[in-house]
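User: Teach me something about this protein's shape.
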Amino acid sequence: MTAINIFRNAPDLRTVAPGEVLFSEGDTGDVMYAVVEGTLHLSANGRVVDEIGEGQIVGEMALIDQSPRSATVIAATDAVVAPVDRKRFVYLVQEHPTFALQVMELMAARLRKANAALD
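Assistant: First, the predicted structure itself:
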């Protein structure tokens, strides 16, 4: 799977402890998170549906379509994340086309995984 590593040296890295909720299903989404270290659990309807690790992102859908969060994200381990607000996200998409492609690859992989789970 594609890894997005441009946030490793971000000035606003945030440390999260196991069990800490980054956001909840239904919340308004104004930030996505890039995982620099550790593991997050993505759950929907109270069930863990994916594990998000180093080099992956979570919360990007809310920045793209400005809809409420479709899942809850909880730190599974000690983790370090880089928050990315909409302004920064749009800048990265405009100025770094490779970033946009990486985001699309991660979203496509997550969708394929979810579809496979339905079979």
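Now, about its shape. DSSP finds three helices and eight strands in the chain. The chain has a mean pLDDT of 92. If you'd like, I can walk through any region in more detail.
User: That's plenty for now, thanks!
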